[in-house]
Amino acid sequence: MKQKVTLIPGDGIGPEVTEAAKICVEALGVGIEWEVALAGAPALKRYNCLLPKETLDSIRRNKVALKGPITTPVGKGFRSINVTLRQELDLFACVRPARSIEGTKARYSDVDIIVVRENSEDLYAGVEFKDKEASTEELIAKINAMSQKKVREGSAISIKPISEFASKRVIRYAFELAKSQGRKKVSCVHKANIMKYTDGLFLRTFKEIASSYPEIEAWDIIVDNLSMQLALNPKQFDILVLPNLYGDIISDLCAGLVGGLGVAAGANIGDNLALFEPVHGSAPKYTGKNKVNPTATILSGALMLKHMGQVKKAKILEEAVAKVIRQGKDVTYDLKPTRDDPTAVGTKEMAQAIAKKIKELL
Ligand code: NAD
After folding, report:
1. Domains with residue ranges and CATH for the chain
2. Over the range 32-67, which residues count as b (16 or more CB within 10 Å of their CB) and which as e?
3. How many whole angstroms separate alpha carbon 298 and alpha carbon 313?
4. Mean pLDDT, the chain, integer
């Protein structure tokens, strides 16, 4: 029987990269029936809502989703649909592997890091207060009465909640991932020297949980030092576990270490649901141009297949991607020696070359 999977094309370059992933997953001959659900610009047009209930219901029903990126207009009062989706579905861990692929223009050839980012709280909790509003001024007055440190009048405020509950479950997830994948080390990334209560709680929880995994080395590192160390010597890191904001930034940095956003895949994991998506955004300037690299979404499809228990097929998909990139012929502009290389192929053509390679490998 075919397994239903929710397919969210998203907007911007989303429909092109999800179509590319669909071509490759279908070439594997896995029994998947796609249930297309809208979010972002197409959902606004059809339902007058960026994240319709129908889409959330589809993911809850099917338990697995593959998603393209969705645009978030900056500073216009819109909450990010991506953040909302993760919070609504309680997808508490965002897992982003960064592994070197031969044939990319990456600076290093031997990176193999998994970023595990807390997905539900921190400065992304959405508890924000607009500047100069009465409620914000009231909050500022209360804070100033309660705290020795004063907040300037007229400030805007974002709250950074970090709970023991959310820290525990994401940190435990990171250690369990290390155990199941035979990884040796988990590093907690924080800024507990400055944010003693919030990041301090995250670090304290990490140390508590680490003590139940004596076979795995537990490190902790301050986020600014980590950034420098990643640029200098990324090989020293294995699994990183981070609060939401640092996780967002560091996963893009790690994507840069292995060839850029075009190849960086991701998974959002909850207790019963999982949503797979590329790390990159909707790259609006490339919309409809059949230009961008579909690899990140295709590899997100491989993560999805592993999650569904189709490990052999997922490995064939990864191998086909690796071969096409290594050969360097049927690849998009970002994987060519120069960005204006006239031999670069389009999104669809790269997907078709991967699908062809899959057929040879099957
Ligand atoms: P972006 O990832 O869309 O693009 C950054 C740059 O990376 C682009 O200029 C492009 O050159 C390159 N790039 C991205 N994807 C690529 C690909 N597949 N192949 C080749 N090059 C690629 O980031 P942005 O410009 O900061 O964000 C654009 C929009 O996407 C914003 O509205 C943002 O909120 C949204 N966004 C969505 C998600 C998501 O849906 N999960 C994630 C990040 C950003």
Report:
1. 1-93+264-362 (3.40.718.10), 107-121+162-257 (3.40.50.2300), 122-161 (no CATH)
2. bebbebbbbbbbbeeeeebbbeebbebbeebbbbbb
3. 13
4. 95
Give the closest residue (by CA) to ligand 1 atom 10: 283
Specify the pLDDT at position 87.
86
End-to-end Cα separation, the chain, in angstroms? 21
**Local confidence band at 291 (pLDDT 50, 70, 90 cut-offs):** very high
Q: Is this prediction's pTM over 0.90?
A: yes
The question of whether 248 is a catalytic residue gets the answer yes
Known active-site residue 191: yes
- Per the DSSP assignment, residues forming a β-bridge with 272 are none
Residue 118's nearest CA partner among 214, 189, 208, 195 is 189
Per residue in 348-360, pLDDT (tens digit) is 999 999 999 999 9
Q: Which residue has the tokens 């539900």?
A: 120
Cα distance between residue 229 and residue 223, in whole Å: 10
Q: For residue 78, what are its two tokens?
A: 């819109």
* β pairing state of 93-99 and 265-269: antiparallel
Residue 75 scores a pLDDT above 60: no
Confirm whether 63 is a catalytic residue. Answer: no
Residue whose CA lies nearest to ligand 1 atom number 23: 281
Does ligand 1 come within 6 angstroms of the Cβ of 281?
Answer: yes
Q: How confident is the model at residue 300 (pLDDT cuts 50, 70, 90)?
A: very high
Catalytic residue among 224, 289, 312, 329: 224
DSSP lists the bridge partners of residue 112 as: 99
Complete DSSP assignment for 243-264: -HHHHHHHHHHHHHHTT-GGG-
- Catalytic residue, chosen from 248, 252, 330, 334, is 248
* CB of 280 closer than 6 angstroms to any ligand 1 atom: yes
